[in-house]
Amino acid sequence: MLDLVDFRLVVEPGAAAMAARDATLEQRQKLLDTVKSEANDTVQHSLQFHRELGVATNNGFMRTILTALHAVLEWQTKPQILSDYDQAESGAAHLAIAKAVSAGHATKAERLMREHLEQFRQVLEREGRLDDPIVPRPDADSAIQMPSSAWY
Ligand SMILES: [Zn+2]
């Protein structure tokens, strides 16, 4: 899990900066819309923001890597942990990032994403989950299900 979190910390701030520079007007608007509809937040909904940010980089490698990355994250993260985190902080962080991307503020978007992911890392650390294996063992929580639509 530490590997995944640290990888996100390297890649996603850069993706946020890239999206701030290269996203289309439609993509910028879609990011804002996604964030604003996070009121009924679920893990899937929250990760949707990160996926759309990857798409909005308009960089084929970044899209592919971030889609795979968030599929793994969605697959093996217990919903409860992410939803606690979402309620506390994630919605506000997503809104700030979406606004910075939408306004084309690459440096700010990058910094906000880094802060957001560092907070996420702290949540996992507090839950003692950083040393969890990426791939759940067969006896792992049965609530964790493979997303059917994420691997394309
Ligand atoms: Zn997030």
How would you summarize what this structure contains?
With 152 residues, the protein is mainly α. Helices cover 72% and strands 0% of the residues. The protein has one domain: Four Helix Bundle (Hemerythrin (Met), subunit A).
List the helices and strands and how they pair.
Blueprint: H1 2-22, H2 25-36, H3 43-56, H4 60-76, H5 79-102, H6 106-126
The structure holds zinc ion.
Residues 46, 50, 90, 94, 116 line the site of zinc ion (ZN).
Please tag this protein with its features.
single chain, 152 residues, mainly alpha, Four Helix Bundle (Hemerythrin (Met), subunit A), 0% strand, globular, disordered C terminus, binds zinc ion
Low-confidence stretches: 147-152
Portion in helices: over 70%
Whole-number total of structural domains:
1
What Rg, in angstroms, do the CA atoms define?
15 Å
The CATH topology is: Four Helix Bundle (Hemerythrin (Met), subunit A)
Number of helices: 6
Cα distance, first to last residue?
22 Å
The largest β sheet comes out as: none
What small molecules accompany the polymer chains? zinc ion
Query: How much β-strand is present in the residues?
Result: under 5%
CATH architecture type: Up-down Bundle
Tell the overall outline: globular
Mean pLDDT: 82
SSE topology string: HHHHHH
Describe this structure in words.
With 152 residues, the chain is mainly alpha-helical. 72% of the residues lie in helices and 0% in strands. It has a single domain, classed as Four Helix Bundle (Hemerythrin (Met), subunit A) (Up-down Bundle). The longest helix has 24 residues, at 79-102. It is globular and about 40 Å long. It starts with a helix and ends in a 26-residue tail after the last helix.
